[in-house]
Every structure is written in structure tokens, then in C-alpha cells.
Design brief:
With 302 residues, the protein is of the alpha/beta class. It has two domains: 182 residues, FAD/NAD(P)-binding domain (3-Layer(bba) Sandwich); 110 residues, FAD/NAD(P)-binding domain (3-Layer(bba) Sandwich), CATH 3.50.50.60. The chain is built from seven helices and 19 strands. Strands 1, 2, 5, 6, 7, 8 and 19 form a seven-stranded mixed sheet that branches. The chain has a five-stranded parallel sheet with strand order 10-17-11-12-13, covered by helices on one side. Strands 14-15-16 form a three-stranded antiparallel sheet, with no helix packed on it. A hairpin with a 4-residue loop joins strand 7 and strand 8. Helix 1 packs parallel to helix 2, helix 1 runs parallel beside helix 7 and helix 4 packs parallel to helix 5.
């Protein structure tokens, strides 16, 4: 096997990618994991709903432990980004940002999804300290707090209604709403207070304390949930004809995490909700084992 030839290459160093690397490497094959753990949605999160981890734990700590575990089993790791993927017979070729090209018998896509951002001052600096992109993930941290949701689609309205079970007060900031009549009725009959404006700035030092709105008002809040929807990191996948789901938001896979292209698997957030670590780890486990089996079969055929 040449220096740059691998049995399995995994793109994405989040929970799905790391777990896939662990299971693939245990098959005594050559595995390369590409990506930065800092790019994972988990990195700035807090985990308290994952079995066997009883205390609230920093996502960054879990990712670091997982990466070291994968390396102990033999996984090679590079933080280089992938620019292009090409397919030649049974081999996939990946062009990296470093200019190097690596090849593999099997490929696992675990790039996650890119959260749509407000792109306002304070959003990046206060991420994980009052700024969140997932109500389902972080609602429990805001029990008894005053919180705000922004967004005009069903994810935002549903998130605001969900937060009523946790927070003492919930605001929904949206200039317009594009939701079903049923969901709108539920919102209007709830105690969620809607503010017809948009957010200009998120304020706070160590934690979020307030929002500056486009209408000139200041809104005191202890948390802001940005629920603008998710956009999948699909550019690389679609280069080689990987099919998406019916809504063209996520990669379509079967129960073995196989895509429509033999040798390509996908796992984690990139294949759809719920966007939770538990789901990502399980899918990564399946993808890692299946990809390893596929790669070993292809090597025997040659």
C-alpha cells in the first residue's frame, strides 16, 4: 500500500467520525480521520443526557478523549480540509488543502451540518455562554431563566413552545412568521411573547445579558436560541453523485449507513435529525464497521 493509500478515510472529527474511526481501526486496517474537533457542533456544547456520563461534561473534553482513543487503536489524524473528491473505479481520491492527495477503498462522510448564523456582534464570542443553536440540546440549562428564540420558521416556533416547559419567560423575535396555521394557533394561545423585530447585537461579558433589537429596544435575556434551520455540508458529497433525501437537506442512507454509491457511507448530523451525540455515535459505530468490511473485501479482490 502506498504512503497515501488508506483502507478507510473519514471526513469529520465529531462524535460520528471519531466513533467510526475507533471501530474501523480495530479491524487492523489503515484508517485516516480528517477534520478538526473544534469544528464539531459538540465542541462548545455541554452534555448531560448521554448514558454513562452522569455529570454535565464539556463537549470539547469528550472529543479530545475520543480522538486520543481512536489514535490508540491506530487511526491516523489530519486536520486538513478536503477540497475535492474524485472516483476512479473502486478507489476514491481526496484532494486536501495542503495540496496532497490521499486515496481510499472506502469513505465515510461525517461532516455534520452548518448552522445558519445571525452574523451579529456578540454571537461568536458568547457561543456556549448563552448563545445556542439547538433548543432540544440545551433547553434544560435554562430552567427558570428568561430566554429568547429567533427565527421565522417552524423550528423557531416549536423551540419557543418547548422552552415554556423550562424557562420562566420566553420571547420570540421575528419580523414575520412562515409556519402552518396549526402551529401559529398554538403560538398565539401560549404565553410566548412575540416581538416583531430582528436582532442587531448580543450583549454580555461572561454570559448573555441582553439583546439590541432593530426597532431600537433592548431586551434583557439570559439566553438566545438561534433557530434559523440547518444547511448540510453537501458540496463534497454531491461532487461524486451522493444522493440526498427528498428535501435535499441531508444525505440519504440505509440501515447500514450506506449511500447510493458503493464504498461511501455517512453518519451523524449530515444524515438528519435528531442532531444528538447519542445518535451520531451509534451511526458512526455502524458506518465504521461496514466501511472496514467493504474495504477488506475490495483488497482481497485485487
Amino acid at each position: 500500500m502506498s504512503e497515501h493509500m488508506y483502507d478507510v478515510v473519514i471526513i469529520g472529527a465529531g462524535p460520528a467520525g471519531i466513533q467510526a474511526a475507533i471501530h474501523a481501526s480495530r479491524r487492523k486496517i489503515r484508517v485516516l480521520l480528517l477534520g478538526r474537533i473544534e469544528n464539531s457542533a459538540l465542541y462548545n456544547g455541554h452534555i448531560e443526557n448521554y448514558a454513562f456520563v452522569p455529570q454535565t461534561t464539556l463537549g470539547a473534553d469528550l472529543l479530545k478523549l475520543g480522538l486520543e482513543q481512536a489514535k490508540r487503536f491506530g487511526t491516523e489524524h489530519s486536520s486538513a480540509d478536503v477540497l475535492k473528491i474524485a472516483h476512479e473505479e473502486d478507489i476514491f481520491h481526496l484532494e486536501l488543502e495542503s495540496g496532497k492527495t490521499v486515496s481510499t477503498h472506502s469513505l465515510i462522510l461525517c461532516m455534520g451540518v452548518s448552522k445558519q448564523k445571525l452574523n451579529v456582534p456578540g454571537e461568536k464570542d458568547l457561543l456556549g455562554r448563552g448563545v445556542s443553536y439547538c433548543v432540544d440540546c440545551d433547553a434544560n440549562f435554562y430552567r427558570g431563566a428568561v430566554v429568547t428564540v429567533t427565527g421565522n420558521r417552524s423550528a423557531a416556533v416549536d423551540g419557543a413552545l418547548t422552552l415554556l416547559d423550562y424557562a420562566s419567560k420566553v420571547y420570540l423575535v421575528a419580523e414575520t412568521l412562515d409556519v402552518s396555521d396549526e402551529l401559529l394557533t398554538r403560538l398565539q394561545s401560549s404565553s410566548v411573547e412575540r416581538i416583531c423585530s430582528s436582532i442587531k447585537q448580543i450583549n454580555g461579558d461572561r454570559m448573555v445579558t441582553s439583546l439590541e433589537l432593530a426597532n431600537g429596544e433592548a431586551l434583557d435575556t439570559e439566553g438566545i436560541f438561534i433557530e434559523l434551520g440547518s444547511k448540510g455540508a453537501m458540496q463534497l458529497a454531491t461532487q461524486i453523485g451522493v444522493l440526498l433525501d427528498l428535501e435535499a437537506k441531508y444525505i440519504a442512507v440505509n440501515q447500514k449507513q450506506e449511500t447510493n454509491i458503493p464504498g461511501i457511507y455517512a453518519a451523524g448530523d449530515i444524515v438528519g435529525p435528531p442532531l444528538q451525540m447519542a445518535k451520531a455515535v451509534g451511526e458512526g459505530c455502524v458506518a465504521g464497521m461496514e466501511a472496514a468490511t467493504y474495504a477488506r473485501k475490495k483488497k482481497k479482490e485485487k
